[in-house]
Amino acid sequence: MKKTAVGLFVLFLFGCAQQLPITDDQQDTASVIQPITKPLTFVSMVTAAEIKAAAQAQTVAAEKKAIEIKKQGSVSTDLTTDKITASTASMKLAAVQHQKKIETKDGMLILGHHEWVLVLSGKKHISAYIDPQSSTSRIGVKDLVEFERDGNNWVKFTFQAKEYKYPVKAWAKSKDKKRLPIVLLRTKLGDRNDEVEYQLIDGGNGVVLGEKFMRDIAVQNSQRKYIQPLAK
Fold first, then answer.
1. The predicted structure's pLDDT at residue 205
2. pLDDT at 167 > cutoff 90
């Protein structure tokens, strides 16, 4: 038993003597990849006010561009808005006028609730309100004065910066019982050229065409406006 223990101890010592010592130089070292770092670049902070200002600037620029495009496509037409009826007529509407008259199968003109007209020798188109519920047509004039000539009633007035004198055909009364002269004035609508009875409204500058004008020549489509071509 003793001999056996001694033999094992000798073998242990022999094994230790055969094992070479491991040094730091003999150890396999794993190469470590060092990360490449770049200096950080700091961007200045943008405030909410600056963002809002930039957005507003872009909006203004877009609006200016739209206006320029609209000007390039607009048509230079001399028009007057009907103030009596608070018409919202625009030059754009006049620019898309039909070139031919629009009528029914039996030859009646089709009128919208507004149409462009020329009155007397005026050069400016007026947006006339078409009112089949009104019997007599009405027109706004300036500086209306009544006078007599050869025993007959006449009126003098200014229309589109030009003075006219016309005999009074009849008289009407306004809602406030004011006497209104009725005269015959040359009126062009589309390809028509007629003498129309008008009540003269001092201080206005619009036109209303009533049932007497439309009688036997026109019908109305109240869902549309500016159906007929511009008068020449």
1. 75
2. yes
